[in-house]
Amino acid sequence: MIKSKKLMKFKNIRHGFFNRKGGVSKGIYKGLNCGLGSNDKAKDIKKNIEKACKRIGCNKNNLVLLNQIHSNVVHKVKKFPSKKLKGDSLITNRKGIALGILTADCAPILIYDPVNSLISAIHAGWKGAYKKIVSVTLEEFRLRGANFKDLIAVIGPCISSNNYEVKSDFLKKFITKEKSNKKFFIYKNNKIYFSLNDYIKQNFLNLGVKNVEIIRKDTYKTSNNFFSARKSLKNKLNDYGRNISIIMIK
Hints:
Blueprint: E1 13-17, H1 42-56, E2 63-64, E3 66-67, E4 74-76, E5 85-86, E6 89-92, E7 98-103, E8 107-113, E9 118-124, H2 126-130, H3 133-143, E10 152-155, E11 165-166, H4 168-177, E12 185-188, E13 191-194, H5 196-206, E14 212-214, H6 229-234, E15 243-249
Parallel strand pairs: 2-7, 3-5, 4-6, 10-14
Antiparallel strand pairs: 1-15, 6-9, 7-15, 8-9, 8-10, 11-13, 12-13
């Protein structure tokens, strides 16, 4: 489990970004696969989620996960939902409710407002980031009295610009939206690469959130031991596991 240096300073919250280490799944899902949407054995996935919850110190029945759809949909959690929510961002001020995000190259984002005791967990692939999932989530913070200068935002392990190859139409889409987005693209060996985490960080900075941390662990890189959708596709595997990231107010 990887922790944020910035969030570790606060004793009233618990958090963690998990890779595949320490789980019970086998085969292509070997390790801590927490992806209920994968074709792994359901009982193994549930055991893995329980293990992650135990590390965080939360009740497994109080972990809120989303049906993630690469959107800018945010859910305000006041109590544990009776059915699975559809969207890509969660926000709460309730103690004991853990917010979880599943990723396999996309970026997990955890946010904490220490003044108003608010937390959020965001799933941000390029689509969600492009659709302004960050600004939509921060608007919910603002509505609850947050000053963006007080927020701590942590962008967790995701695919890095070293391995995130994209096509020219992808590049055009981002530059058409904002010319300055060109700085998030790298050109090498006649190929184009995109820096997702730096793009997300800039979203925060543009909105006045200055306290932003990037955990630069590339999920595509085998030695980092994360589940990676792009790596699985390259290896011609028919499915892949998901990494879990969790935050909770104690």
